[in-house]
Amino acid sequence: MIKLLVVDDSALARKLIGQMFATEPDFSIQFARNGSEALGLIALARPDVVTLDVHMPEMDGLACLDRIMVEHPCPVVMVSSATAAGAEATLEALRLGAVDFVTKPTGAVSLRIADMAQPLIEKVRAAAGARLRSSLRLRERVRHRTGQTSGALRAPVRKARPAARGEGLVLVGTSTGGPPALEMLLTALPATFPWPIVIAQHMPATFTAAFARRLDGISQLAVQEIRTSVALKPGCAYIGRGDADVVISRRAGDLVGMAAPAQSGYPWHPSTDRMVRSALNQLDPRQLIGVLMTGMGNDGAEAMALIHAQGAKTIAEAEETAVVWGMPGELVKAGGADYVVPLHKIAAQLRKLVG
Amino acid sequence: MNEFMEQFLLESRELVAQAIDDLLALGQNPADRDRLNGALRAFHTLKGGAGIVDFAAMARLLHAAEDVLAAGRSSEASIPPDVLDPCLACLDLTSRWLDAMQARGETPIGAELDANDMIARLHASRDDDEHAQASLPEAGDWLDRLDASALEAIGRPRTALRYVPDQDAFFQAHDPLAFVAALPNVISIDACLTGSAAALEIMNPFSCHLDLVVVMAASGEDVRAAAAGALGVTEIRELDPPGGVAVTTVLGEHSAAPAVEAIERSLMTTDPASVQADLPLPAHSPAALRVAMSRIDTLVKLTGELIVLKNALGHSARLSQNDTTSGALAASLRQQHAQFERLATELQTAVLRIRVLPLRSVFRRFPKLVKEISASVGKSVRLVSEGDDTEADAMIVEALFEPLLHILRNAIDHGIEDPHSREAAGKPAMGTVVLRARRDADSVVVDVRDDGGGVDVARVRAVAAERQIAGPGVLAAMADAEAANLIFLPGFSTASAITELSGRGVGMDTVKTNIERLGGRVVLETRDRVGTCISLVLPFSLMKTAIMTVEVAGQVCGLPLDTIVETTSVHRDRVIQIGSGHAVVLRNRTLPLIDLAHALGFRQERSASTEARIVVMSVETQMAGLEVDRLGERMDVMLTPMDGLLAGVRGIAGTSLLGDGRVLIVLNAEELLG
Amino acid sequence: MTVVLNQSGAIQLIGACSVDDAEPLLQLLLANPIAPIDWRNCDTAHAAVIQVLLAAMRPLRGPPAGTLLKGLKGPAFGPFDRGNASPAAPKMQQPIGAFGSECRAVPEKACLTRS
Q1: Among all residues of A, which ones are annotated catalytic?
Q2: Which residue of B148, B190, B206 is in closest CB contact with C102?
């Protein structure tokens, strides 16, 4: 039985989320109307997982999350709005230790309740079994408490564009737990990294731009979102636009990354499988490196196993560091991973492969 | 109503109240950050709720309002009052939506359009360029793209839509082509690329650069509603039905210009200045609108149907009125009927004005003809035309030529004396014929006045007697004015000499018949030695006849309103028997009284009522009373002339459809009284 | 696969062409600079596919199978079977020139209602 605590100031939202889990026999649900009520209940009932509304009166979601992480660490799934402001707050929450997030339906994309229910249940279930990264939490907590933004703690980063050394591409796929993991990976790579890096991080459309800006601010690589299409350059990392797919193509001979409307055949977007397959049409497999990191489900496992079979090198994040060892686990199980390494060693492995 | 909806309504009402509180407090103290944050939270949660119950319009609206407020928060300055007002208006609209949902249990109809309007208003309150109204890429007059075949008349309002989707449209699972194909009654779709489209070599196929023009057989209103889900910039133009000329432009606004206004505006083409002000018509916009007659006829027919519908509405209003249990229904029906009547009349007027012509188009042919005619009979006549800019229905104008020519011939041939006689009578040798047109209420009157010798009444009497057109007794009893009218009787010709002109077997009777066929009357006025004036009184249009309905022997008939002088009722004692006929004295005047039921052969015996209902009619110089059972109402009908076997029936001017589907026979007063 | 290069060297659009077909179509057009497009078996096409056709200005073998596509007007569509003709290349923003002058042409049976 999974003990779930739903924290939301809106009675309607509580009712909605409660309803969604009502059909799941392995969940028992409790509700809290605000941050202080939540903290009390967490101390008392020790839930396995918490869903936490980002925007709440009195103690808002981030403040509540921070105290949860300090006082009674447990997996938290943020419930946020799919807006730019919501994106900033949610990314901050992920840095503070939230495992994952879901977005509330808004008018712009009129979701039906069932559409939200499935991802929410899956994410909450996965989060209930997720591992918490204490080191990251501590650092971020200090940052949050002192009111500093992450970028302010770092020296200004010089972005020197390296010369292209042969043509090649690193393709990264990740989902649950991906944002902090990507942060760790990209900050560990130098500005001189010779192959462009294209990343499929499952995220809503409104989040990826904010996420790319954030990564750009803290890493030596230049990071940008692929909004429409962009020529892929060395020393740069590209985040596929959320709620859409990213495909690799060529224009006037140059490699480009292009956002494409989400293809219905793939359950998650941006789809790692679709990205990897499109790259295979443009490049020799030996010019490709696939990296599959933390995330539930199996997106990317099939396509990466395919390029592995055709001669590309692939890296799967090890189970010990993955928040959810779904996607990398599937790749490993399919025998498609050349290297299975913990998160903090993926950057070094990449440098070795392109060096 | 499901439990979510109930919860939603409950929570939303509280939030709306809270947000209004906060906004009002902000109005008092614009720097109050707590109030601002409170309002923002309320908007945010309201939006979230709307998303949960799948009320997209509300979520969109509140999202926009939240954006506007949030922009105020991020700037250091206080919230300007011109931001608060539209936000309060948003809450007001939200409140109304909530009421509607409470009542009906579903999201309110038209919410998308309301939301669009309000969002536009919100954006207008922000002075930054970023949120300025998106504008369409310039492409000259995009109506030029329309294929001629798309503009073929099909007797319905047609509307063109230009749709330039957002470049991002494909990412919203939106297929602009499928979207426009699903619009109502699509006639044609034209696709081209916008100027921002890249060459194929560097093209991003997922960035939308389409520029679509769709023509639909639908009203602008319908198109506007259907196009509400467009992701991008749309421009809607209502096309006038036959010519393919845009009559109204609606860009990013949702207040509808009614069809009537549109047609009215299209008629302003005589005033180029006003046209240019409103419409981006190409420079070569013609001063005259050339319209195929067939297309106009379609409109005319439609209008006719509308009139029938109007009468039907009136009928149901009356029906419901008799039903005492539904007084409210009756009131609303009456009100609807009144509105409908106004609309129908406006539309009719507008349509009529499409097919009017100035009389100039027929008048201008006469000076040359008058010269020829007068030369051929050795007379000197000048023709003076007045009021040739008076307008009338094109068909009437066209049909006037023959009768007018005949009257002019008569005036020159018989009216104007030869120069010697004129000089002897102290008149200028040159005769004058004045051709004068004027508008008189709903009629157009054309006078042909000559300064000749007038109708020789003695001669008319003689000819009438000679040709046995009237008995000697009747002739003797006739006043001079009445006798002069004998010239309109079939077969009458007073020409003492068979001239080149009048030997054609066409008399004034033909003139009279032709004018009456057009729904008009001929009035003769003549003064011995001073001259003659023949007036043609014609309806402004062929379409509308004002009538009054009367009931006799259970049968409803219409009487042309323009022949009715008054209606009254008199005690049967005052009905005087004169020979086999009856008469009644009204205001010291003795009027023959005709029992309509008897005249129409419905009934022989007199009505038993003590009061006789009488319609006093005046035709030409005669007045008479028509006895009816009941007086009905005034209405405008489309008069259909009798044709086929019934064409020859005397006393009937035509028929019209009544609201309840019955055929209304409209009587010809002239023939009844004659 | 609804976009293929057939044996006669024409790029064929088959069945329902979705938004995903736009990029493969574009790739085929770029790789085969003179290949004509054959859309006689095309039932429906997403707007993204249509705009690639508009940008390509290739000879278009038609008419297409789908009613909506058949009725589509614009610089790239119709007259059909232009297989032999050299690709017409009017300026993109400028739609078929003839329309501008023809659309207000006076029908034969016309009367002057205003002067």
Answers
A1: 175, 202, 299
A2: B148
Q: CB distance C23–A261 less than 8 Å?
A: no
Is the whole-model pTM more than 0.80? no
Pick from A11, A108, A260: CB nearest B7: A11
CB within 8 Å: C47 and B146: no
- The two most distant CA atoms of chain C are separated, in Å, by 63
Residues of A near C (Cβ–Cβ under 8 Å) read: 247, 249, 258, 260-261, 263, 281
Query: For residues A322 and A291, is the Cβ–Cβ distance under 8 A?
Result: no
Q: What is the enclosing helix (H) or strand (E) of B114?
A: helix B111-124
What number does CATH give the domain B544-673?
2.40.50.180
Give the integer Cα–Cα distance in Å for B659 and B314.
Answer: 7
Contact A249/C23, CB-based, under 8 Å?
Answer: yes
Domains of chain A: 2-145 (3.40.50.2300), 162-354 (3.40.50.180)
Q: Do A106 and B44 touch (CB under 8 A)?
A: no
Asked if the peptide bond before residue A270 counts as cis, ω within 30 degrees of 0, the response is yes
Q: What is the pLDDT of residues B145-198, one digit of tens each?
A: 665 555 554 555 678 888 989 888 898 888 999 999 888 888 888 888 887 777
Any domain includes C111: no
Complex ipTM more than 0.90, yes or no: no
A259/B contact by beta carbon, under 8 A: yes
Of A16, A108, A259, the CB nearest to B52: A16
Strand order in the sheet with B210-216: B246-251, B232-239, B158-165, B210-216, B186-193, C72-73
For residue C46, the enclosing domain spans: 3-102
The count of domains in chain C is 1
Residues of B in contact with C111 (CB under 8 A): 290-293, 394
* Inter-chain residue contact A113 with B7, CB threshold 8 Å: no
Q: Return the CATH number of B358-539, one of 3.40.1190.20, 3.30.700.10, 3.40.50.280, 3.30.565.10.
A: 3.30.565.10
**Domain range list for chain B:** 3-131, 142-278, 293-355, 358-539, 544-673
pLDDT tens-digit series, residues A77-115: 998 876 666 788 888 888 888 888 888 765 433 345 566
For residue A107, which residues of chain B lie inside 8 Å, CB to CB?
A: 47, 50-51, 55-63
**Residue B169 neighbours by CB distance under 10 Å:** 24
Question: What DSSP assignment string belongs to B514-540?
Answer: HHHHTT-EEEEEEETTTEEEEEEEEES
CATH numeric code, B3-131: 1.20.120.160
